[in-house]
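Milestone 3.1: sequence recovery, worked example.
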């Protein structure tokens, strides 16, 4: 079992390092990250977007869905900024949920979520309190919309100005990817525009845990 785990870890490390081995693979890494970034920004639910990403890139056994691993003991009370985003006063209850969104054995993102229980159904609140369901799946019936506040590339495989100056030698290889690659901040809203959730999502290096795409000639 230990040998199998070591082999699997070695294979995953090898796959991730491939993204950094050549100038071409670094350009591909940037294209893939921007594709994921665009998918996340153009869809209301990060959960459902990650479902599709995980399936399309075979990051877990067929049929796997995103589940939320609760991170307890690290609660962050809603500050004035969060209350402004949710348009509520100091007396209204704001629940907090910190999760790791997992597909198979890969953690694809970590998220902080402040939400208004009063805007959800009793069934939704119970599911969020007692199960590992991801937030987007739990509240999917609300047919909610998403207002993106910011999208930040936490790591770029290419240095600024590479498109004019070319790739320098130190960019040809690197020992590893950083743990987080993208960060998004957003507000989820009901169909009438009422905000009910504020989220901060950080996407991990595991979103690139698949072989570097082959460049095929026509």
């Amino acid at each position: 079992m230990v040998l199998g785990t070591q082999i699997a870890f070695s294979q995953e490390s090898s796959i991730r390092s491939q993204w950094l081995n050549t100038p071409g693979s670094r350009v591909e890494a940037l294209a893939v990250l921007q594709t994921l970034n665009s998918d996340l920004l153009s869809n209301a639910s990060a959960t459902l977007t990650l479902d599709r990403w995980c399936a399309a890139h075979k990051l877990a056994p067929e049929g796997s869905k995103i589940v939320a691993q609760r991170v307890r003991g690290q609660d962050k009370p809603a500050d004035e900024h969060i209350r402004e985003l949710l348009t509520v006063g100091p007396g209204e209850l704001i629940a907090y949920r910190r999760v790791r969104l997992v597909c198979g054995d890969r953690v694809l993102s970590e998220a902080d979520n402040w939400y208004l229980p009063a805007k959800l159904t009793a069934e939704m609140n119970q599911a969020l309190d007692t199960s590992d369901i991801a937030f987007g799946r739990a509240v999917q019936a609300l047919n909610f919309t998403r207002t993106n506040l910011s999208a930040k590339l936490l790591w770029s495989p290419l240095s600024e100005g590479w498109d004019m100056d070319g790739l320098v030698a130190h960019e040809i290889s690197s020992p590893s990817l950083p743990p987080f690659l993208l960060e998004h901040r957003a507000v989820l809203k009901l169909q009438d525009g009422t905000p009910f959730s504020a989220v901060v999502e950080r996407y991990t290096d595991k979103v690139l845990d698949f072989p570097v795409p082959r460049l095929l000639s026509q």
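The domain at 15-160+170-208 is CATH 3.40.1410.10 (Chorismate lyase). Confidence is low (pLDDT under 50) at residues 1-11.
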